[in-house]
């Protein structure tokens, strides 16, 4: 299980950039978002997690290897506006409703 970003209410609600993993009943910080964020959404596709941030409007990709270790964090785009907990789902290429 991962915790991506968030707010530190013990420190005035400061937006966080940490990427934390719960493994063997212990939380460990395994990386950092490129831009601190909160209230975003994430989707897991292949060996990557795509995080759509609320405050920063950034779209970041977290790449993992076959043993589920974080390898890279990259900003791959920006949303046109800030969306509070956007709903994400995977479709096939060039899908149109």
UniProtKB/TrEMBL annotation:
Recorded hits in Gene3D superfamilies, A to Z, give: Kelch-type beta propeller
Q: Which InterPro entries match?
A: Gal_Oxase/kelch_b-propeller (IPR011043), Kelch-typ_b-propeller (IPR015915)
Name it.
Answer: Uncharacterized protein
Organism whose genome encodes this protein:
Oikopleura dioica
């Amino acid at each position: 299980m991962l915790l991506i970003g968030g707010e530190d209410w013990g420190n005035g609600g400061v937006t966080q950039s940490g990427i934390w993993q719960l493994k063997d009943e212990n939380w460990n910080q395994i990386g950092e978002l490129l831009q601190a964020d909160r209230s975003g959404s994430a989707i897991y596709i292949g060996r990557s997690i795509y995080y759509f941030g609320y405050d920063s409007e950034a779209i970041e990709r977290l790449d993992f290897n076959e043993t589920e270790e974080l390898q890279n964090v990259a900003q791959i785009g920006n949303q046109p506006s800030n969306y509070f907990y956007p709903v994400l789902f995977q479709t096939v290429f060039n899908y149109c409703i």
